[in-house]
Amino acid sequence: METIVLKFGGTSVGTIERIEAVAKIIKEAKKEAFPIVVVSAMSGETDRLINLAKEIDDNPPKREFDALISTGEKVSAALLAMALHKAGVASKSYSAAQISMKTTSQFSKAKIINIDFTKIEDAINNDFVPVITGFQGITDEGDVTTLGRGGSDTTAVAVAAAMKSLRCDIFTDVDGIYTTDPNLVPEAKKLDRITMEEMLELSGQGAKVMQVRAVEFANKYNVPVRVLSSFAPGTGTLISLEEPNMDDMEKAVVSGIAFQKDQTKISFQGVKDSPGIASSILGPIAAEGIEVDVIIQNISNEGRTDFTFTISSIDRDVVEKICNTQLQDLDFNNLIIDNNVGKVSIVGVGMRSHAGIASRAFQALANNNINISMISTSEIKITLVINIDDVNNAVKVLHHEFELDK
Ligand code: ADP
Ligand code: ASP
Ligand code: MG
């Protein structure tokens, strides 16, 4: 039977009224294909649980932390199954453990390994709409894990890949993917389509409308994904698997702008410039599963150089500890840890065929007195590290400069 995965985010299931509205969307979707539903916790719930844990311990035991913060999704899944029942649609809720959604054992950053879809198939064959808890999994030992903030998106795409579903529809509080966060720039425009490549970069650089892991899964397993609103009807944005045609590429040089504020910049100043310094600094950090983003090593001066990189601020405490223990013996003059940084990224496949995008961006920022501290580029992306207080303005300036509001 043809299936379609429908994922509902926190605001979409934020109240009983919203949950009942979602039940109606699912009932309607059942006419197109058999729905498999994935839900997030009710909005604010995951934050509430995190704060409860922090009241006890700033650094609580990781296993218990995941056991706690995964509970929000169980509540919304059961409530939605009840609402479906009331709307005349037979349904059963399933936790990750009940469908053996196996993950790695890195708590709070676990990665999905495989899903036993016999339970899901059983439900479908008996005409029960399965409602699956997003954001969580279990280890081989049976411990509950979570997939990182926004992880329900990844659950949804993984289920769609495993079930070879027709499509994965991500229902959220905006009616699609915009040229930048419409909550920051009201002039942002909704895109009807976006390429997988561009979405990978936008999500990877902070557009939280979809967790980057989810886009990676969609890309790897060729899952068509659509992002749309659960609040208003519409066709949303399709993340297309096809290559864009040249006409579209000519039209839009830049497709979107992403930004991230929760960044930390770490600089080893005056580090001895010898083979292997990059790996001796970044090796222990990678071993903790921490992602390092923009990396810059300066030209060396009298055998010493500066080595700088950015990480997500969530990982700051762990990285600081590594710097002060494992990296203590490294030969350097100063360690500077700066929390006042953010990143702005310009993304577009059209950059391949257009030169001068970077200099246009630099000029626009300079005209607005915004200082750039680090730059990194890829074929379809330019990332700029700037002061955190300049991020909002930089997004607006660049959005206007590249005429994304037109
Ligand atoms: P959900 O709870 O449904 O998962 P999220 O809050 O995780 O919703 O993601 C939706 C939010 O993503 C939007 O409200 C918007 O503020 C933000 N966002 C950031 N960048 C974009 C973008 N380019 N297009 C649309 N939304 C974006
Ligand atoms: N409830 C989780 C969070 O708030 C997962 C999600 O919403 O996707 O991050
Ligand atoms: Mg989300």
Which keywords apply here?
2 domains; six-stranded antiparallel sheet; binds aspartic acid; 33% helix; single chain; binds magnesium ion; 406 residues; eight-stranded mixed sheet; Carbamate kinase; 13 helices; VC0802-like; 27% strand; binds adenosine-5'-diphosphate; alpha/beta
Q: Regions with pLDDT < 50 over 5+ consecutive residues?
A: none
Query: How many domain regions?
Result: 2
What percent of the residues sit in helical stretches (DSSP H or I)? Answer: 25-40%
Q: Radius of gyration from the CA trace?
A: 22 Å
Distance between the termini: 43 Å
The largest β sheet comes out as:
8 strands, mixed
CATH topology value of the largest domain: Carbamate kinase
Strands ordered across the widest β-sheet:
3-6-2-1-9-11-12-10
Write out the distinct hetero groups bound to the structure. adenosine-5'-diphosphate, aspartic acid, magnesium ion
Question: Overall mean pLDDT score?
Answer: 95
Beta-strand content = 25-35%
Structural class by helix and strand composition: alpha/beta
The CATH architecture of the largest domain comes to 3-Layer(aba) Sandwich
Question: Can you count the helices?
Answer: 13
CATH class of the largest domain: Alpha Beta
- Shape type: globular
Task: Give a description of the structure.
With 406 residues, this protein is of the alpha/beta class. 33% of the residues lie in helices and 27% in strands. The protein contains 13 helices and 18 strands. The protein has helices spanning 16-29, 45-56, 62-69, 71-86, 118-125, 152-162, 196-204, 212-220, 246-251, 277-287, 316-324, 357-367, 391-401, and strands spanning 3-8, 34-39, 91-94, 102-103, 112-114, 129-133, 136-138, 144-146, 168-172, 193-195, 225-229, 237-240, 256-272, 292-297, 304-312, 334-347, 372-378, 381-387. The radius of gyration is 22 Å and the shape is globular. The relative contact order is 0.11. Adenosine-5'-diphosphate binds next to loops. Residues 9-12, 40, 150, 172-174, 177-178, 180-183, 207-209, 256 line the site of adenosine-5'-diphosphate.
